[in-house]
């Protein structure tokens, strides 16, 4: 053996195969070493002057009898290709290791914890105030039928009250009867009807959600905004129950010194109807720019459920094969709906409604 290369004594094919296999096994064993120095491996095997392949060439090929040179030459070329492949593989493994290795000198990347959007915060707070009063939570779709958004809520076709909630209608609906045409809901009130169609009285439900109106954007109006709706139906529900419930909810949200007052208003689906004002949280009712020096800010609409709504619900229940359960002679109820965006603006002194939808993290991070 010279230079670690076994001496070739026989030149038949089987002996040559055995000798070359042994060398290839050596090369594979070295390449698999855990701390392989790739460059050293290449030099050890392929180095022009002292590499093992050069030694094999010298010891086996050059010294072989003429008739064996071809057989050795073929096997030598194969071995060379196999060793070159091992060098390439070790290079690829080394790149992978380099990529995976940890460079502790690099600056760290900060992962800032997320936080609830101020709108979500207000919505959740309000919903939990009502949950504590025994209300369950419901939701409904943003695309509604004309029947559920308007007709069942006592907005007959062509009624002027429809103008107060102009909306966006879905295209290609003209061939359908008006009550089945689809539109973007203008308020969360259609979920009152959905609930009464699905459940028998008594019920207490609070409904948060997104609504849409065909309105230009300004500091306090947006074509897309959020409401929380409430509906309570039972026997002997009175306007006093409505006043007490909303007063408690506003005090829970804005503090116990908050006062509420109710002003006559109009909604087609409640009778009587009222707008609720709260004492201005910015000046404690003394009068400031935010409350236009009145000491009061208007926050929501409410009223006693109009008997026509109960009648529309029962008529629809009969159409659907359900028992009519909402006879206005036997039951009564109240409903309310509030704009969450404006409530959030009030709570956090936000002057522009658009900021709530801007996605600007400089604004949003203040609430984290
Ligand atoms: C309604 O939408 C009634 N469905 C509320 C209701 C429910 C009354 C149940 C009685 C019984 P109104 O159109 O006033 O009512 O809207 C309710 C609240 O939504 C408003 O007080 C206001 O806070 C908010 N709001 C209305 N339009 C916009 C808008 N364009 N941008 C932001 N908030 C709005």
From TrEMBL:
Pfam families, per the entry: Phe_tRNA-synt_N (PF02912), tRNA-synt_2d (PF01409)
Which EC number applies?
Answer: 6.1.1.20
Q: What does the UniProt entry say about where the protein is found?
A: Cytoplasm
Q: Where does Mg(2+) bind?
A: 271
As to how many cofactors bind and how, the note says: Binds 2 magnesium ions per tetramer.
GO molecular function annotation: ATP binding; magnesium ion binding; phenylalanine-tRNA ligase activity; tRNA binding
Q: Which domain of life is it from?
A: Bacteria
Subunit note: Tetramer of two alpha and two beta subunits.
Q: Which InterPro entries does this one have?
A: aa-tRNA-synth_II, aa-tRNA-synth_II/BPL/LPL, Phe-tRNA-synth_IIc_asu, Phe-tRNA_ligase_II_N, Phe_tRNA_ligase_alpha1_bac, Phenylalanyl-tRNA_Synthase, tRNA-bd_arm
Q: What is any one GO biological process for this UniProt entry?
A: phenylalanyl-tRNA aminoacylation
- Known PANTHER family for this protein? PHENYLALANINE--TRNA LIGASE, MITOCHONDRIAL, PHENYLALANYL-TRNA SYNTHETASE
**Record's protein name:** Phenylalanine--tRNA ligase alpha subunit
Q: Which gene encodes it?
A: pheS
Top-level EC class as recorded in UniProt: ligase
